[in-house]
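Quarterly update from the structural biology core.
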Amino acid sequence: MTLGAARGQNNPATTADGRPSFRTPKNIIQLPTPQSQFQNVQSGVPDTKLTREATGLLHEFSTPLLFNHSHRVFFWANELGRKSDAAYDQELLFVCAAFHDLGLLKRFSSAEDRFEVDSANAVRQFLEHFDVPTERIQIAWDAIALHTTPGIAAYKATEVELLYNGVGLDVLGIGYSDFPEQLRKQVVAQYPRVNFKQDIAKAFLGGFEHKTQTAEGTCNEDICSHFIRNYKRSNFYDQIQNSPFQNS
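Predicted structure, tokenized:
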């Protein structure tokens, strides 16, 4: 076989135009429908069908830790968006904040994917149910899938960067001193950070302790190293050296 044939040059040329922008997950985790009594948005959150049902899912099927964390992330991200004067989708930003950590919960967790991807797949399913346009869905998927990945969000849609920065502020304190102090205190008073530093680390561990391979190469690997006795990750350098190809 010639190199040209191996590359498929005898086949009709194809491009990415017209293809779906995503592929369906191998294992689809069906989202529950929250009861109506949980579908009440908090003060300051845009009141729409999407935000009410997202709040309901977060309220009924998540935890107080993640409920408060997700709301703080939204308010941090929303304020950062307001200060930037950039156009952004406030409704979609809240939905992203509500869903971004759902993959840490057993009900929304797959056996093989990163928890961020499980969360992103959940938001895609949620938004498709409401016939949200594909472009908005892809932004939400990207925002959630990339919310722990440095160096990329700043070059994606505004909502992707806002969620990333909102999470960075709430979990790591990035930008703390630059954030309006009065608003910061107001948000924390409404959504307390009770034992947050310890409990969020344990929530991360619970989300991928059963699939630690998904944490390799990510910040989540540090959680595994801290909590799991004799945790050993693969080594990228060793993988390069142990490739079956010979130097030529």
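The chain is about 50% helix and 0% strand.
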